[in-house]
């Protein structure tokens, strides 16, 4: 299944302060992930720092692809996730370092022998995930939860993967917010 291209409307301000449409059109950054065929990242916007600067600055989606949000910032993207193939489930773990390198965070991959899914990873962020179309299974260290269109996940820095067991492409919206682990959780993770 292919989805129609996403349209992004960005507002701004004229020199006299009037609200204007600064840009209106397709996303300038749409990236197929080479080591996970069929997976496509659609970069929508990101902010740096808090509070976020409000101005007429350049498009923050141009440049290198990065999985996590900027420090003290946010990132919004749509991801098209293909069904898990038998080949991917059998051999995908060997390609994950390269896949996470392409998306700008090689250290995020936590896959190891015995992992419940080849895409297991962790980022120090709070991620809001919304299933827009299709079905997705959220895989954690010891459980899995089926999600359908309209379901929302609040993923709080946990080790996880997105498994598409549905037989068709799933489209998800993600908003990532930079975070810091609670000291007790950090200590537990460091002790693993």
UniProtKB/TrEMBL annotation:
It comes from the Bacteria. InterPro entries: Cupin_2, OryJ/VirC-like, RmlC-like_jellyroll, RmlC_Cupin_sf. Gene3D superfamilies: 2.20.70.150, Jelly Rolls. Residues 113-175 form the Cupin type-2 domain. CDD domains: cupin_BLL6423-like. This is Cupin domain-containing protein.
């Amino acid at each position: 299944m292919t989805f129609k291209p996403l349209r992004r409307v960005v507002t701004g301000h004229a020199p006299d302060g009037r609200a204007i449409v600064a840009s209106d059109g397709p996303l300038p950054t749409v990236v197929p992930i080479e080591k996970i065929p069929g997976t496509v990242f659609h970069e929508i916007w990101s902010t740096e720092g808090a509070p976020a600067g409000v101005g007429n600055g350049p498009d923050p989606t141009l440049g290198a692809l990065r999985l996590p949000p900027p420090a003290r910032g946010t990132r919004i993207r749509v991801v098209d996730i293909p069904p898990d193939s038998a080949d991917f489930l059998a051999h995908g773990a060997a390609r994950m370092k390269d896949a996470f390198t392409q998306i700008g965070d090689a250290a995020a991959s936590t896959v190891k022998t015995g992992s419940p899914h080849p895409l297991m990873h962790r980022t120090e962020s709070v991620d809001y995930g919304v299933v827009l179309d299709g079905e997705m299974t959220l895989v954690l260290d010891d459980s899995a939860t089926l999600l359908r269109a309209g379901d929302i996940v609040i993923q709080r820095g946990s080790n996880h993967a997105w498994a598409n067991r549905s037989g068709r492409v799933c489209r998800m919206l993600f908003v990532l917010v930079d975070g810091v682990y609670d000291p007790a959780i950090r200590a537990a993770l460091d002790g693993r």
